[in-house]
Amino acid sequence: MRQEIKSSCLKRLKRIEGQIRGLAGMVQDDRYCIDIVTQIAAARTALRRVEEEILRDHVAHCVEHAISSGDKADQRRKIAELMDVVSRADR
Fold this sequence. Notes:
Blueprint: H1 3-28, H2 33-69, H3 72-89
């Protein structure tokens, strides 16, 4: 993973970690259910953005490298990994 992507993702994940702690506090304080669900959706969206950033970087470097290497087995492996993770994300 490129350093700027790593830094960006870590920053986002720390923010998400704070959101999750806030959610636990909301549950502990018996906050209004819809407010909690709204914050859960926001945290889920934030995680999805981190996931997209990491996947984009993976395709731009790991998959691109496999393609340019000419190694057919590595190409198939990288594409299969990518398809597997994308199909799991849809579930």
